[in-house]
Amino acid sequence: MDTRPIGVFDSGLGGLTAVRELARIMPEEDLVYFGDTGRVPYGGRSRDILVRYARQDVAFLRTFDPKAIVIACGTVSTTALDVLQEENDIPIFGVVAPAAHAAARVTRNGRVGLIGTRASIRSGAYERALDHLRPGVRVTARACPLLVPLVENGRFQPGDVVAETVVSEYLAPVRAAEADTLILGCTHYPLMKPIVGAYMGPGVTLVDVGEQCARWVKRQLELDGLRNERPGAGRHRYYVSDSTEDFTALASVFLGEDMTGEVEQIDITAY
Amino acid sequence: MDTRPIGVFDSGLGGLTAVRELARIMPEEDLVYFGDTGRVPYGGRSRDILVRYARQDVAFLRTFDPKAIVIACGTVSTTALDVLQEENDIPIFGVVAPAAHAAARVTRNGRVGLIGTRASIRSGAYERALDHLRPGVRVTARACPLLVPLVENGRFQPGDVVAETVVSEYLAPVRAAEADTLILGCTHYPLMKPIVGAYMGPGVTLVDVGEQCARWVKRQLELDGLRNERPGAGRHRYYVSDSTEDFTALASVFLGEDMTGEVEQIDITAY
Prior knowledge:
2 copies of one chain form a homodimer. By secondary structure, chain A is an alpha/beta fold. Chain A folds into 2 domains: 6-94 and 211-270, 3-Layer(aba) Sandwich (Rossmann fold), CATH 3.40.50; 96-209, 3-Layer(aba) Sandwich (Rossmann fold). In chain A, 44% of the residues lie in helices and 17% in strands. The first copy, chain A, is built from 12 helices and 10 strands. In chain A, strand 9 (236-240), helix 12 and strand 10 (262-265) form a beta-alpha-beta unit. The radius of gyration of chain A is 18 Å and the shape is globular. The two termini of chain A are 29 Å apart. The A-B interface holds A 38-39, 44-46, 48-49, 145-146, 149-150, 152-153, 155, 161-162, 165-166, 169, 241-243, 245, 269 and B 38-39, 44-46, 48-49, 145-146, 149-150, 152-153, 155, 161-162, 165-166, 169, 241-243, 245, 269.
């Protein structure tokens, strides 16, 4: 039993799709979220810059004495997880291992599609994890740099010709490779599920990295005796590095429900 | 006569379209460019964050003892020019006044279209400048948040259905308002000229903020006796806040020619 909060961070608001899952399956846990809205997006940046930003994100969350930290960002998970784990004495969870395990488990034909940001795809992290779990698996990976701006501009509704065209261009090689499983390797992508699912067809299983990561974190906390078993709903606090204006409305889109809880702006460069 | 360099900065690479114009009309001047690629894009950020970033950009450029600084970024020009001018004892030029003067001069029917980032449009800076120069002018302004990601992903070629669809959606109200002049209020937009020009038709004059700003700067330096009259080609130096990898190739797209000159990465948060 450990009543300390779970820290969660992302480049911006996409990580809230992981918060939604964490809150759904562990409603009693306190959560502290940091979204680096002053420096979003992370997906096109170099490894050096990503490591620097991620270290600051973790340092800020550690001021809350968390029992664990969840990297709810595909880009940081693929490029800085090892560094962050080495430097910290609390569990740091990324999205790669949970998603790779899920994909290795659900694929029937051993052909897995993967979409993510440029930095995520460049890292090769999913391929390494999958190859270890299921040798011989064939991964068709595609960097999708326009999906984050499209989602952040609210363009993810079926019928949006721009979103549909971009999705079909990015995914054509994945469909051609006859993948039966597709890893949505960025926490922004669950909002694109209707368009992506329609393009890939009903025979393809979509693996949501935030959802898989939330389940993984729950299991690990249980194994380590770190769950909060106090009855009642946990407290959710939100921090961002740019203005909190409009945050509540936008956050509700990613959370899939009206956002409740405090929101505060902080200076991330001070950490 | 003043042989000190001209400092130029932007959130990323878009400002290089202004560098191209500065170099074209003042080939003998030394130029120092800073692109804040570690924190690009600026267009969706709040005023507070923009002012903080812009102060650091100027502080970095001032280490080169420039005779003037050009804000080759529509977003900073519309939201932080006054602050930067107050805090600095050298001329600081933005893109708003030059573009507003050009639009006021060329419009025949007094109807001017304006496209820019969210922060630029929210500022109302172009409307204020135009209203002062030509009272009664009617401005139809549109925030175009997807144009920067499209340009940065190389999607600005005629025939690109995504770019053409997005441009036509953004510009439909401008065409409906029968504007005869359109201000391209972001230094990324000159690359969209072929698509924008085709959509608006041959009767509409496109005002390129970088080009107008370069002419304005030249005139002001001449009036103040600050031009470099030394014969020979000026030295061009480039600095960025993220990795310099791929910079040369990408920069050449914005410069419209092969990039020459040194490129170096710096830590902008140290300024």
